[in-house]
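Troubleshooting: if your tokenizer reports a length mismatch, compare against these two reference records.
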Amino acid sequence: MQSKDPSYDGLLKLGEFLRESVLSLDQPATQDFGHHGNLSAVLDQVAVENPWFTRESCMHALRYWGQMLSEANLSTWLEPYESPAPSAKTIALILAGNVPLVGFHDLLSVLLTGNRALVKCASNDRILLPFLTEKLAEFEPSTGQRIVITDGRLASYDAVIATGSNNTSRYFEYYFSKKPHIIRKNRHGAAILEGNESDTDLNGLAEDVFRYFGMGCRSTSKLFVPEGYDFDGLFEAFYSFKDVIHHHKYANNYDYNKAVYLMSGSQMLDNGFLLLKEDASFGSPIGTLFYETYKSSMDLDARLKGTSDQLQCLVAGPWFKGGIPFGKAQWPELSDYADGVDTVEFLLKTSTD
């Protein structure tokens, strides 16, 4: 984009605030957070309302967005696109709530294309994103005037970006059929192991599996391993996340799924905080990681053919074309669009229609 929307500078200031906040909140021994103290209190409130959104999970999301909202990242992302159209449209955003700030990319895209955002947050993620929009309004008041967050019925909008489950997507498709729209469904993350991965690779994979308790659409919920694969090294890498079992909601899911599998006579591997089960499905339940074996690269290619509508990302070593590095599943580039649909291109086209 040759011309920059007024929100651009405000977002850069928000990125600076987040980077400073992460540095400040990572030093809890002082208990003196200065002007970042409000954010610390917000994180406490978030964890009370939604126990899945632990302080650690929220800090990871804040750390990510602090890095993404930089001059280098924003300019590199936006450079290929045409300048925003002068006539702003109102874009309704129906956000998911599976991981903290999961809908911030959509909001960012709307603002930087010169449009207005009508935001409906998920019921279990109603605190953190509104807090950041308030901070953004402090840095750039005109941007704050282009964001409306509502709990009620959506009205007076020109286009829709909605994220939900496979079930809700059918409702969204029907309800928003007369408006330009992007409707997202369930997607999953998977990983391919060749059998000669380094300790660094496996430690990165552990991050991909356990970050956000495995609830993100980019979380690795399925492994493809060669026949005869030895899981000992993988379980050793996973051990650094052993304390996940002390989270009561995670532990409840782990115990429930273990009981179900035992009662059904299913075979599984169990390290005390994660169940590893052979299964053809891509979406494994919380506390469980599915896997499949393959005989050859040709066998693997045949298995993956036609699964692009189920996979959000695929983690693998450099030998596999199209894979992303181990440990980077939750660090997508700004141009890594959900479901492979270019949000910015959609918004620019909508503005000119």
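Reference record two:
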Amino acid sequence: MFDPRDHYWLAEDGRLFGSARAGLVNAPESDEAYAAWRDLGRLPTPWPSGDGGEQSLATLQAVLSPYGLFADLLSYARDRRWRAEVGGMTWNGVPIATDDSSKVKIAGARIKAQADPAFETTWYGADGEGVVVDAALLTALSDAVLEHVDGTFTTFGLVKVGIAAGAITTTAEIDAAFG
């Protein structure tokens, strides 16, 4: 039975990815976990290919993503950055949704606020509670959301460097970086 969390994908060049370990199998011919998995009568799935026939981590990641699995730490870090971006924030004690739809609405309100300094509206936080905001507060809210989004990209950049340097080697360390 196919279990994406305990499966192997084999590339034409001999690379073998194991989802249970979330990484490449260094020596498949002598790997005990892979041998035990094969002893159950299982065979690895061919590594997926891209439009140009390449078998990259990106093509494998496209297959793994629907299962919440990651081909490498960088793929996990990209997903973690996105989840931090759209996961919301608190501004002036109000929980603010930062999903894509909410960010568009905040940007639209900012445009209105810049065009009409007397603009005032009730903005509803992620908790459903309303707060009256004027043009200046909407601009401040928009700035805070932008800082939140920018912060996720800044953190991702630092994590990416840490992964490349070998200083970040686990998903827990990536999670800690994003707080």
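Descriptive notes for reference record two:
- Residues 135-165 form the longest helix (31 residues).
- The radius of gyration is 22 Å.
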